[in-house]
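Kindly go through the following sequence and its backbone structure tokens. Advise at your convenience whether the structure tokens fit the sequence:

___
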Amino acid sequence: MAVFMASQSAAVKEAEELRLKLRAFDGAVPMKALDPRRIRASRWANRHADALADKAYEELRADIAASGTNVQPICVRGLAAGTDANADYELVFGHRRHRACLELGLPVQAIIADIDDKGLFEAMERENRARKNLSAWEQGMMYRRALDSGLYASQRKLAESVGVDLSLISKSLALARLPDSVIEAFPSPLDVQFRWAQPLSEVLQRDPEGLVARAKELRAAKAVLSAKQVLEVLLGQSQKPLNRSTPVPERRIGRAGQGAVLTGEADGRVTLRFDAGVLTEARQAALLAWLQGHLDSE
């Protein structure tokens, strides 16, 4: 009963959020089933491909597949005739729902709004922040495109229009304006955090060539590092030289003295070191047979 009540409460809350969002589009065409292939992403689309590879997206996709379409509509605006031979509409919000319907080959439920560029950008920005928070880098790229396109005259005007603090705009933009090589050094752009904007910007101003060189070295080494470890290397705080022999963190299997240690190298090699006395002849034979069976099956 408690689970049922909780799910009902969540559903009511979600429906109310949707009702408030749609109030901004009074006068829009009622919900209509559209061909997702005839809808193009907004020029300010802000979702990185990695954002469509997480558990939340897979759950959303599964829900839409089970329902046969998206229960909550996306919002689009019509394109003027001749604007795009491959599309009739442009997304306002609902990029993840649109993508799921597109992948599943299902019609997408949408409301068609009469909205200008600023209205589109602000509606998309509010929707994304309300549903699934954008990463710091995604948010920065969205703001950067809006400013670079001349949609807003300044960061302050942008902050006032979307209702966020000016410092958040500045931090987001600082990350979005980092060299591509720096962002590519991280496991994913989604891993970059707001609080890293200041130290990375300071290093970029003080030693741009060194920062880019360290970033390129990270990419070339192909070492498996966490985002925090990458940050330390980029800032010059890492005490270990980074090259193709730099090992990734070791992993112990079993208790000390009674197990083994697995170590991966940056060049892809893996070493498994057994503690003394652990690998008896019988265990060695069993291990070799297991390895032979798995390698032969590849």
Notes: The chain has four domains: 16-134, 136-177, 181-234, 251-290. Confidence is low (pLDDT under 50) at residues 1-12, 243-248. The first helix runs from residue 2 to 23.
